[in-house]
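User: Run a structure prediction on this.
Assistant: Running it now.
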Amino acid sequence: MLNKDICVIIPTWKQHLLVFEKCVLSCRKIDPLLVVVSYDNHFKDCFPINLMSLADHFLFSDRKGKGTHWIIQQKDALSYVSRHGIKVVISLNGDCVIGNPDRFMKSIEDFKHSKYDIFSYFHGMHKKTERIGTMAFMAKFNSLTKIIKRMEEDSLYRSRENNESKMVRIIHEFGMKISPVDNSENIRCPSENSGTWVKDFSFAHLHP
């Protein structure tokens, strides 16, 4: 059944090409209204046509504004989906997969009607700094739009702050709520049977 108020944004770049198809196909199983791929094109390279066709909409995102490539990719994709009445955004990097779509869809429904603004695979301390995982998360559309707008603006004078630290700081500044999560042991490469997303949703970072 098509979930008409849910979309998936896939920020990706050329290093994800070997596993990109697995990512998109796993996203298709949660039946979102849209799968939008935002491709980091700062290398000005080509993307295979057969892989482009897997998405409902494919954006060549180039860094014309402030902020990291990931921020610009999110901004471009959110701008596109803003006309479609989306309530919940799933963001999944192009080298990640969701292996248990049924449990994931149930979690999306619970999240949609919850008090929380964002639910990430990781939230906590990493290298003595509070961070929230940007590799995979779900967020309320309006909340994420505000967060990304502020992240872009903020990058003008905090250019050395990484996205995970910047995002969680801005979430707190807005007074938004983060859903509790059992963290993966490793923020970069979640290991087997480690954390809520891995155990419940069979989330995996394929990391080619």
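The CA atoms of residues 7 and 81 lie 8 Å apart.
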